[in-house]
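WARN retry 2 of 3 for item q-0093 after timeout on previous attempt; input resubmitted unchanged.
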Amino acid sequence: MYGVDAEVVDHIDGDSLNNNLSNLRNVTQAVNSRNNKISCNNMTGYTGVYWIKRDCIWRVSITKDGRQYNLGSYKNIDEAIMARKEKEREFGFHENHGNR
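OK item q-0093 returned
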């Protein structure tokens, strides 16, 4: 980005090799963290949704500004995913968060 002292340069599409100006935005680290890829350690395919084998439930959590929020436990994975997605929208996470 030219003429801008970026706090953090975020690649909107998540591709760090795509340096087209239309794919870059100047954001804070907190905003940039809301556009993360899914962790390679994720077993469910959904960020913040975890299977608790002992209890046979899906547990859901989300972290914003260094604070972790417990979003509850669910018997149904679809309900767990829906709870997570709703909170992502409420907290202003990027639509690509957890994708790729």
